[in-house]
Design brief:
Blueprint lengths: L1 H17 L18 E14 L11 E16 L2 E16 L6 E16 L4 E11 L4 E6 L5 E7 L5 E14 L2 E14 L20 E18 L2 E12 L8 E11 L4 E12 L3 E17 L1
Antiparallel strand pairs: 1-2, 1-14, 2-3, 3-4, 4-5, 5-8, 6-7, 8-9, 9-10, 10-11, 11-12, 12-13, 13-14
Length: 297
């Protein structure tokens, strides 16, 4: 199944690249008027609410919201390029029959990629990637009386992931980057109070708070305007652990589609799938779709 997904992702990237017949090179800027930093970002709020009263077809009252933040700040001067990206989002839903408000999204991701140019589009590179969540996560069950209960399972920095490595970067521009890092350290941090007897918690052994891996990391970022006012942002990360089961490749793929309605309203589709057998033996899938209020800066 993982091999099929990798093939589909590769085909999608190839087809997306083929969609652009020509590559245009922006005119050189006047260094006296434009600094080495370029910054851009977007904040969005997606809200949904449904109510039902004597509705024969059925339905459940609910209210949900999702707040997202995506910010880039990149540096380019001479042979040096330093790209940074912050992705954060948080969402909750509350239904009438549930005792608790439940998360629909919760993530914080920081990316930093430093490159020293050695040819027109190739760089020596060093990168760091950090991921965690903002608030506690729970497993939900019903007791013998049918009452819903929840048990804390995750929290901020439990798990937390840090990857850092060196390698080679191919960078066409800020919208297309491929980084290959054959020497990458991966740290998994957890609260050791969550570890279970005879069972690894996100790959971390009982009573421990960290797991170390050494492996190969490949990452790709590709953003394009498919048609007017429709943008596709693709983020793919692959990781293989040299020290244990290198054939079990970790996959993290994100697709963010933004369809602009006007300056402040967009239709957003966010899709993410993760395969990490230390966290869950199968694909994790997250999808959020709706109309959002946006503010660009």
């Amino acid at each position: 199944m993982r091999k099929k997904l990798l093939i589909l992702l590769a085909l999608g990237c190839v087809l997306t690249l083929k969609a652009q017949d020509t590559i245009t090179t922006p005119a050189k800027a006047d260094n006296d008027t434009i600094g080495p930093w370029t910054k851009k970002g977007n904040a969005s709020l997606l809200f949904n609410q449904s109510t039902f009263d004597n509705w024969v077809a059925g339905g459940e009252n609910n209210i949900s919201g999702n707040l997202g933040f995506n910010y880039d700040f990149n540096y380019k001067k001479g042979v040096w390029a330093w790209d940074n990206k912050v992705i954060a989002s948080y969402g909750i839903v509350k239904t009438r029959t549930s005792s608790f408000a439940k998360k629909t999204d919760d993530r914080l991701e920081l990316n930093s990629l430093l490159g020293r140019q050695i040819s027109e589009r190739w760089y020596y590179s060093a990168f760091a990637n950090f991921k965690t969540q903002f608030t506690k996560g729970y497993n939900y069950t019903n007791d013998e009386n049918g009452t819903e209960r929840r048990d804390e399972y995750t929290s901020f920095l439990s798990p937390g992931y840090l990857l850092a490595g060196v390698g080679m970067l191919y960078k066409r521009d800020d919208n297309l980057k491929i980084n290959l890092s054959p020497v990458t350290s991966k740290f998994t941090f957890v609260d050791k109070n969550f570890t279970l007897p005879d069972e690894a918690y996100f790959g971390v052994k009982e009573g421990e708070a960290m797991r170390y891996e050494l492996g190969f990391n490949a990452s790709m970022y590709y953003k394009l305007d498919v048609i007017a006012n429709v943008t596709f942002e693709n983020i793919l990360n692959l990781y293989s652990n040299y020290l244990e089961d290198p054939q079990n490749v970790d996959i993290d793929y994100q697709l963010n589609i933004v369809m602009k309605i006007n300056r402040y309203l967009t239709t957003n589709l966010m899709f993410q799938t993760i395969y990490d057998d230390n966290a869950f033996r199968g694909f994790q899938v997250r999808q959020v779709f709706g109309v959002a209020a946006n503010y660009g800066f």
